[in-house]
Design goal:
The protein is 0% helix and 51% strand. The chain contains no helices and 8 strands.
């Protein structure tokens, strides 16, 4: 049986325009006393993935580390270019905290060989501790339709994992 691999890569972005006078350039630390970080544009690493909880069968991989790209950002959001075969996605950003709803919305169709269609939804959130580092968690739900779903375990199943991202 093939393994379902969810390469859960999180990406963050920074602003490519010049800031208004008196504001620090994007990707630089905020003024003392402020906690608002905008992530730097460029290549990032998704690592230190730690499975927190899982009701998934071992045939459902809970993710893996890897690189990703960031192509735009502002104080209110950023855009992620995952390097895992999934679609680019946007995240909201507020006072260094980010929320990436529906980070992955994927369907894996094993038909006609196996009568199973998996639907995967992943949301991610976390906090930037600088313009080049953040930590957070991802919550995933996997569902299945078809007569062979039991091949992959009981559905729906879910898992939560913590992660760290850092600019390269």
């Amino acid at each position: 049986m093939s393994k379902i691999t969810l390469a859960l890569l999180l990406v963050a972005c920074t602003n490519t325009t010049n800031p208004p006078p008196g504001n620090p350039p994007p990707g630089n630390p905020p003024p003392p006393g402020s906690t608002d970080y905008v992530p730097r544009i460029g290549a990032w690493d998704y690592s230190q993935v730690t499975l927190v909880t899982s009701t998934s069968n071992s045939s459902v991989n809970n993710g893996e580390a890897g690189n990703f790209g960031i192509d735009s950002a502002s104080a209110t959001g950023f855009h992620v270019l995952p390097d895992d075969g999934n679609m680019a996605f946007s995240c909201s950003l507020s006072h260094s905290a980010f929320d990436c709803p529906n980070r992955i919305a994927q369907v894996i169709d094993y038909r006609p060989n196996i009568d199973a269609v998996l639907t995967i939804h992943v949301d991610a959130n976390g906090t930037f501790s600088s313009a080049t580092r953040a930590s957070g968690s991802q919550d995933a739900t996997v569902d299945c339709s078809g007569s062979a779903c039991s091949t992959y375990g009981a559905f729906p199943c879910d898992f939560t994992q913590d992660f760290v991202i850092s600019a390269l």
